[in-house]
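cron nightly-structures :: item 1 of 1
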Amino acid sequence: MRDKVEVSGYVTLFIGVALLAFTFASAYLFLSSNPTIAGSPDLVTVFGVALAPLIEACIRIMYLGVMGWIGSLLTIRGVQLVTQVKREARPEIKPEIKPIVPETVKAPKPKTKETLKAKETGKIRKAKLVE
């Protein structure tokens, strides 16, 4: 199943790139043909003679724009398919998260009057407090 998706992704990608290359080649040939617009002192005659080539140029430009748009969409979809298959192919390493359990904290022993008195007099030093 993964191979079919990968092959369709590459086919879509190459069709899109080929369509874009053809569009740019057609645009280059169209622009390098040097279309001429007739010149005349009479404005009505100029528009009458130039209108047909201008309409033809507009049709070609729209055609090239649509071809470029479709080619770019196909290329984008092909790249998305290929990268998605590559992303699914490699295993994802998930770190194991162990919950941190705090050690049980012992509540401090309540101090009595005797321990406080012994502490004040200095009888209790580093030894444990005696209740």
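cron nightly-structures :: done
Residues 2-89 form one domain.
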